[in-house]
Design goal:
By secondary structure, the chain is an alpha+beta fold. The chain is built from four helices and 18 strands. The mean pLDDT is 96.
């Protein structure tokens, strides 16, 4: 199963979009049409890479847009870039999401006592290779961190690309602690402080900031897949989410998007143009005293 991407608009601008196609060249939704499992028997999952390691642009699957392309998050009319909170530079992993998952905002998690954040479940891929935006990779899950972001549950799955040269050495969260000392602590630190430069408070974590193991993580992922299935079958309220897809819903479903409709959506966007310059703030380090 292979996927390709098509850039539209100008990179580093409000017009930029990254659309997905399957092996047949058909436009698809990375939220709904890419299977969650790459290999269910081995618990290998697909991950859509939104943000390559070391970069700052807060790119994400546009859950409220038709076909759910990747686009840059916008705040107060401006493109959002994650600040470099010393000693970090950009995202410190390849960051993305598992398709066909959804953290239901109407479901209060028994462990975190908070409801879901209305997004697909997030993944930090810790392999040695820097991925490209829009890559669809296959990962094995190692563990999970329960972040509480402004009162919402926001799980962070720790995983490694199965094709990474280091993949055979990593089978559990304890392997990460042993072979990449400091990485998990840096991950907690990154998520705790990344919003502070925007004037937000530090984020909190359930389980006393501890990472839960692989089995716990896989159960959480499966739960979010169950929530997604309820979403795509109209058994739960979608709110502002766009659930149209080209491969999953039957032709009589209001969520079924025809190939012609999908082409028209892409055609309404501008062709890929000249890359806009990055703001100088992307290179600045932000210092502040830890609490």
């Amino acid at each position: 199963m292979s996927f390709t991407v098509e850039e539209r608009g100008n990179p580093n601008s409000l017009s930029y979009r990254l659309f997905f196609k399957n092996a047949d060249g058909k436009y698809i939704s990375p939220f709904h049409d890419i299977p969650m499992y790459a290999d269910e028997s081995q618990n290998i999952f697909h991950v859509v890479v939104e943000v390559p390691r070391w970069t700052n642009a807060k790119m994400e699957i546009a859950t409220k847009d038709l076909l759910n392309p990747i686009k840059q998050d916008v705040k107060k009319g401006k493109l959002r870039y994650v600040a470099n909170v010393f000693p970090h530079k950009g995202y410190i992993w390849n960051y993305g999401a598992i398709p066909q998952t959804w953290e239901d905002p109407a479901h209060k998690d028994g462990d975190t006592d908070c409801c879901g954040d209305n997004d697909p479940i997030d993944v930090c891929e810790i392999g040695s290779k820097v991925c490209s935006r829009g890559d669809v990779i296959k990962v094995k899950v190692l563990g999970i961190l329960a972040m509480i972001d402004e009162g919402e549950t926001d799980w962070k799955v720790i995983a490694i690309n199965v094709e990474d040269p280091e993949a055979n050495d990593f089978n559990s969260i304890s392997d990460v602690q042993r072979l990449k000392p400091g990485y998990l602590e840096a991950t907690v630190d990154w998520f705790r402080r990344y919003k502070v430069p925007d004037g937000k408070p530090e984020n909190r974590f359930a389980f006393n900031e501890e990472f839960k193991d692989k089995d716990f993580a896989i159960k959480v992922i499966k739960d979010t897949h169950t929530f997604w299935k309820a979403l795509i079958s109209k058994n739960t309220n979608a709110g502002e989410l766009n659930c149209k897809n080209t491969c999953v819903s039957a032709g009589d479903s209001p969520y079924c998007c025809s190939a012609d409709e999908a082409k028209a959506v892409v055609g309404e966007t501008c062709p890929c143009g000249k890359e806009e310059p990055l703001p100088s703030s992307v290179d600045k380090w932000f210092y502040y005293e830890r609490k």
